[in-house]
Write a structure and sequence with these properties.
By secondary structure, this protein is an alpha+beta fold. It has 3 domains: 158 residues, 2-Layer Sandwich (Beta-Lactamase), CATH 3.30.450.20; 99 residues, Helix Hairpins (Orthogonal Bundle), CATH 1.10.287.130; 152 residues, Histidine kinase-like ATPase, C-terminal domain (Heat Shock Protein 90), CATH 3.30.565.10. Helix content is 57%, strand content 19%. The chain contains 11 helices and 12 strands. A hairpin with a 2-residue loop joins strand 9 and strand 10. Helix 1 packs antiparallel against helix 4 and helix 6 packs parallel to helix 11. It starts with a helix and ends with a strand. The protein binds adenosine-5'-diphosphate and magnesium ion. Adenosine-5'-diphosphate binds next to helix 8 and helix 11.
């Protein structure tokens, strides 16, 4: 990762520096060239004025020793080769004495004959870079001849190359230092990642209490916080799982120990009294029932965990469900001489998973009957409030202390373990009810006073989304 960062960064820098170097080189060359063009053009125009009259005479077609000497002297003076042609492109004078009398077909001469000034840059093997500058010689606005000045650009190219060379050296040195800097920078950047890797490795070895500490104030910090939050959640889930397994084992062991104790007593029993056997065996049967209850509730729990997102939602009459439940529970209530009553304030039809909601309500009403002494009262009420269907279950039973209230929805929690054993409770009923109602985006609330009774409110939203 570090090397990738450094090399990508360097590659970008090198490309950028190269582009800048080429651009600077070109610009410098163009500036020099423009300077040179202006300088030569000024000279050409001066010469053009000087030789106007000469070209106006009729001698223009012949070789003129005097004229050629004049041009040669002028050429020496300005340090460039000068060629003069007439309007038929025939060379009248050449400071190098090479083309006199010949016809020249350079494109610059062509365009100057058309009245324009022209330039051309050429690279000859023997001379190097050369600039051609041509201007027309105008007499009464008519082109009578052309001046072609050719000048070496070698000095300019040399200078430009020198500048490029210096730039190159500066660039290489800069890149070297940038590389060193980039390396340290990348080191600095990848440091938090190293930390992450270290912590992730530790977590893989089940050290879920590990947290990353990142002191930078950038995305790494945000990532670190998100990561820590995730690990906390994982840790929490893991602890819940451990607690759950421990609780389940404990809950299963208690009835098993009882069964073992009872059966051992029976084995060592010398009595012939059949009633004692019957009593012990019925105790064993009730312990087995208890085991069954626990396992049934556990299975419901596992199903709820598994099917979290698979609610079988159907528009259902809550009144109808309640009627069914209450008539079923009446048997239990009658056994305990408890007066179980039901009041419908509204008739409510909402989308619910009917089986699951029934299970939840049964658990709440079952508690109300279970934790209310003989001749008590349980009232089930249905009404609508704030777009919620509310099922209120009120009893005048033993009540729940303030401290216990916050735990009653926890798995396996029972306020009074010994009493609850007699009543066959598993401590899972409310936790199941709570989960089911939560799946329906609802809630369960409790009000209770020890000795006076408890009221449970099961609230389910009317429009589940
Ligand atoms: N209506 C109630 N009155 C008094 N205590 C209650 C009532 N409902 C629940 N509780 C207390 O909350 C505990 C948890 O309830 P629940 O999860 O249904 O377990 P259990 O299997 O013991 O009924 C019960 O053991 C009991 O102590
Ligand atoms: Mg219960």
């Amino acid at each position: 990762m570090r090397w990738k960062l450094v090399s990508t960064y360097l590659l970008l820098v090198i490309i950028l520096i190269m582009v800048i170097n080429i651009f600077i080189g070109q610009t410098v060359l163009n500036i020099y060239l423009d300077e040179k063009k202006i300088e030569i053009l000024t000279k050409a125009n001066t010469l053009s004025n000087n030789i106007k009259l000469y070209l106006f005479t009729d001698r223009v077609l012949e070789f003129d020793e005097y004229f050629n000497r004049y041009i040669t002297a002028y050429s020496k003076n300005i340090g460039s080769r000068v060629i003069i042609t007439n309007k038929y492109k025939v060379v009248l004078a050449d400071s190098n004495n090479e083309y006199i009398g010949k016809v020249l077909k350079h494109k610059e001469i062509q365009s100057s004959l058309a009245g324009k000034t022209d330039f051309g840059v050429y690279n000859f093997r023997e001379y190097g870079h050369v600039l051609y500058t041509s201007v027309p010689v105008l007499i009464d606005n008519k082109t009578e001849g052309v001046i072609l000045i050719s000048d070496s650009l070698n000095l300019i190219y040399e200078k430009t190359n020198q500048i490029s060379y210096s730039l190159m050296i500066i660039s290489v040195i800069s890149i070297f230092f940038i590389a060193i800097l980039a390396f340290f920078f990348a080191n600095f950047l990848t440091k938090p990642i190293k930390k992450f890797i270290e912590i992730i490795n530790r977590i893989s070895y089940n050290q879920l209490n590990q947290r990353v500490k990142i002191n930078t104030k950038d995305e790494f910090k945000i990532m670190g916080n998100a990561f820590n939050l995730m690990i906390s959640k994982l840790n929490q889930v893991d602890n819940q799982r451990k607690d759950f397994v421990a609780n389940v084992s404990h809950e299963l062991r208690t009835p098993l120990s009882s069964i073992k104790l009872l059966s051992q007593s029976l084995i060592h029993q010398n009595e012939k009294d059949i009633n004692i056997y019957k009593e012990f065996l019925s105790d064993i049967t009730s312990e087995v029932d208890r085991l069954n209850n626990i396992i049934d509730d556990l299975l419901i729990h596992v199903d709820l965990d598994k099917e979290k997102l698979n609610l079988n939602l159907k528009t259902t009459s809550i009144n109808f469900i309640l009627k069914k439940i209450v008539s079923r529970m009446t048997v239990l209530a009658v056994k305990k001489n408890i007066y179980l009553n039901m009041i419908f304030r509204n008739s409510i039809e909402i989308k619910v998973d009917s089986n699951k909601i029934q299970q939840a309500i049964i658990n709440v009403i079952d508690n109300a009957i279970k934790y209310t002494p003989q001749y008590g009262k349980v009232l089930v009420e249905l009404y609508e409030k704030n777009n919620l269907a509310v099922i209120k279950v009120k009893d005048n039973g033993i009540g729940i202390s303030k401290d216990s209230l916050e735990h009653i929805f926890d798995r396996f929690y029972r306020v009074d373990k010994s009493r609850s054993r007699n009543t066959g409770g598993t401590g899972l009923g409310l936790s199941i009810a709570y989960q089911i109602v939560l799946l329906h985006q609802g809630s369960i609330e409790v009000e209770s006073k020890v000795g006076e009774g408890s009221t449970f409110y099961v609230k389910i939203p009317k429009n589940l989304n």
